[in-house]
Amino acid sequence: MRSSSFAALSAVVLAAGIPSVAASQSYEAINHLKVYGLSPTSFEVIEDHGEGARGMWCAAADYAINRLGVPRTTRFYVKSPRGRSQTGAGRVGVVFTTDASSLSVQPSRSVSVSVETPGEGLPIYHANQFCRDYEIELDRILFRHGRY
Questions:
Q1: Range of the structural domain that residue 34 is part of
Q2: For 95-132, what is each residue's pLDDT tens digit?
Q3: How far is the C-alpha of 96 from the C-alpha of 146, rounded, in Å?
């Protein structure tokens, strides 16, 4: 009787912990966009807050650096262009990957910034520069309100 009670209690504790594990899989980038890991090399950035391509690339670079620990010189690519989210119903997202061999098309280099073409790639350090907009904005807000 004692072991079955323990098993039942363990099952309840385990089940209660599952939502927190799932919730911890999301990452909030510097520009407040949510990023969800799909595999060790692929992840989805969810469109929000009126962010365009620069914001999506920024969030992807932030995730790659801070969550995946990928070197900044690594290139990463649009795996699935802007479209229906793979991680949430009714959302729009872009899937990025650090693994060029997982692309369905040949990887390409671009001077324009887009999330509409599969295979487009940038070095992470380049995409991370788009995050400077948010760092400058945060500095301006903090200085304006005397928080420094």
A1: 26-144
A2: 999 999 999 999 998 777 899 999 999 999 999 999 98
A3: 38
The answer to whether residue 58 sits within a structural domain is yes
**Tokens 């070095």 label which residue?**
123
Encoded tokens for 57: 């690339």
Mapped to the 3 state alphabet, what secondary structure does the chain carry? CHHHHHHHHHHHHHHHHHHHHHHHCEEECCCCCEEEECCCCEEEEECCCCCCHHHHHHHHHHHHHHCCCCCCCCEEEEEEEEEECCCCCCCEEEEEECCHHHCCCCCEECCCCCCCCCCEEEEHHHHHHHHHHHHHHHHHHHHHCCCC
The domain total for the chain is 1
List pLDDT tens digits, range 24-80.
479 999 999 999 999 999 999 999 989 999 999 999 999 999 999 999 999 999 999
